[in-house]
Amino acid sequence: MLEPLARPLHLVLVSPQIPPNTGNVARLCAVTGCRLILVEPLGFSIDDRQLKRAGLDYWDKVFLRLYPTYAAYAADYPDARRWLFSARAETSLYEARFEEGDHLVFGSEVSGLTPEVMEGGTGTAVTIPMLEDRRSLNLSTSVGIGTYEALRQVRFAGAGRQAPPAS
Questions:
Q1: pLDDT in tens, 98-121
Q2: Coil, helix or strand at residue 39
Q3: Contacting residues for 22 by C-beta, under 8 A, at least 6 apart
Q4: pLDDT more than 90, % of the chain
Q5: Which residues of 5-40 are buried (b: 16+ CB within 10 A; e: fewer)?
Q6: What is residue 16's three-state secondary structure?
Q7: Residue 59's closest CA among 47, 70, 67, 69?
Q8: Cα–Cα distance measured from residue 76 to residue 16, given in angstroms and rounded to the nearest whole number
């Protein structure tokens, strides 16, 4: 079983456009104890039926904050360690060293993170390795991969714990 972190991870979706993706990420937050941050503009209403359906009956277990802009979010968490996920980043997420309380930041399904976010000095850009000539992964899939890699690292970073050998 997964144990809750003393300082949970924050999953930040900047301008998500597809309700089921955000609902799936909310469900991921509910089952992992991560916190969900949504940055406007959203491509849907927070009351959207598809959003609620994708999150199933887990919404009461989700810590959710909504921000009008990325700048407002960043100002509220000035000292956060941020990992900016982008298909065009050079550094693999497997090279990142995640810690409790980190913020994993993902862009919209249509355009990813804006140049202002990527070049604004608010975080470190990482990518999920893919085969060449592929544009990107689905947003909720990417968030799941990033979240469980971060949880794996944090879980085995504790004193006396060792990661299981690779198969």
A1: 999 999 999 999 999 999 999 999
A2: strand
A3: 13, 16, 38, 42, 44, 51, 54, 140
A4: 73
A5: beebbbbbbbbbbbbbbbbbbbbbbbebebbbbbbb
A6: coil
A7: 47
A8: 20
